[in-house]
Queue: 2 jobs
Job 1
Amino acid sequence: MKFNKIYLALLGSILPVSSVFAGGLDRSGQSISAFLQPGNYAEAGISILDPKVRSSKLAVDDMAEDYYFPSAAIKVQATDQISLGLLYDQPYGADSLYPNGNPVFAANGEATQVEVETHNLSALIGYQPTENWNFYAGPVYQTVKGNVSLRGTAYSLLSGYNIDLKEDDAFGWLAGAAYQIPEIALKAAITYRSEIKHELDTTETFGFGAIQRPNALTEVVTPQSVNIDFQTGVAANTLAFANIRWVHWDQFAVTPKFLNAASGNNLIDYSDDQWSATVGVGRKFNSHWSGSASVGYDSGAGNPVTTLGPTEGYWSVGLGGQYSPAENYFIQAGVKYFWLGDATARTGTTNVGEFEDNYALGYGLKIGYRF
């Protein structure tokens, strides 16, 4: 069972839609699959998530906002042994807004809200001593910013608290190795990403500005992670693939000075590491059309969880399709359904209530070009 280069180029692109909803603040999954494509390659994509996170006991119909994030990559095979790549994604984030008018999470016409945004730019250089091996590493440039407002009886005396975490940039690194046997479409890769430490200029206000601490610094350390990717041909025109991801969330905490002094608590923290896995198959129907199906699991990052993201992990199923008008480019689209895990929402050391029967729909679109 041998696979020609055109077949590998088509079938090797059939990956499931990005995870888009995962433990902690994880979003993109930080894939480097574009860098492992053969030859010169570029892609651009967008992922969209429509979640429903609710609590019948707390009269919350939905507190999770829809969101989208783009991604892009370019990889150049500079020589037979040296490859260069540049990857952009938004690895972590949060978008939540509780219903106004619910006294548990709203007060004085305002509701609890959170927005966290990150951007990653990863530069890679790879060395291929043989056709089978690829060793790669490079720096990662990352920006982080966030805003949080706490309202309602769930936060007791902290209702009315606001924090503005101004954008900060910092550097980390990644390194990994891949092994492939092109004749049978086998490819395995392991990639490590370092933690990245940020010091964000912070303004905390409370009680309509009665107490304010501008220009303090809040430390945020985005976690280290490991991705393991595997694919292999299993039959004519059929490829099996798998991804395993570990993210070191159990030591993650955001501890603003005033909030901690007033309550002794963190703004956000997690108790467990996140483990996730996706497995699936891809099938080439003809020279233009291919498809994929996948199932996924995510452990979440512990339970109870913060009220700013009250779910614990998920199970998912996904379908993807790819149309290749010519040998050197393709258009890919996919959809995923997520059964989001039930969770107990907590503020500080107090459990507020249960969030149950949560779900989400994820959509993805990607265009790839070989040059």
Job 2
Amino acid sequence: MQAGAEAGADRGPGSEHVGPSLGADAVRHVVAQVDRALPFMTATCADSPATVWFADVLAHVRAGSDPLRPWRDALSAQMSHRHAVDVRPHVPAAFVLQWWCEVAATPIAYAAVLGPWVLAPSAAGLGLELAAGLNPHRVVVDPGQAHLVAESDRARRLERGHTAYLGLVSEVVAAYAPEVRMGSRQRWGVVSDMWDTAVRLAHGAAGEDVGPASTRVSCCFIYALPGMRVCASCPRSA
């Protein structure tokens, strides 16, 4: 991924907030609560040289480049080596788009479900770091670039969190992967599916009965890899 751009992209659609933020220390507390609930990912306020900030990616998109292509290319090469086949480009394209949205959805959804918090990082305050498998394994929230308020009504928290999530991902999603044929149902289905999945996992982390996963709108195309098959929630199995 490309990083390091000059970015005036720390605010986006849905970044308007109601009421003053609870402050950086409160953000650190909430991110720590989210981190303890995550099974496969770390949420932290500590960045590193490996952190890629959403604002930098957005700045490249606005400049007309494709900053997520290096991630897709690297994942394609890794998948091809692992499975000893030429992987069709729509597979890494789907995975990268899902992961990009998952990074934004996770801290916001978990904060809304686990406690009375609406957490809304700006694009300059949300970053990710990749594991060796090229999946995100660290979500980084800069406490000085995140708005946090208390809201007693969970439905209202989730509504406001969803707005903040869309503000973080929509512009990049709209411009995503021009070399890959991706219809609007798949593209925006990923956005919807990743939010719904994050909310469902957060409810599970809170000890609530979530039942079976509902059928997704989008497809991850994992069935196209040797030995793999469609997921239980895949729209192709509906």
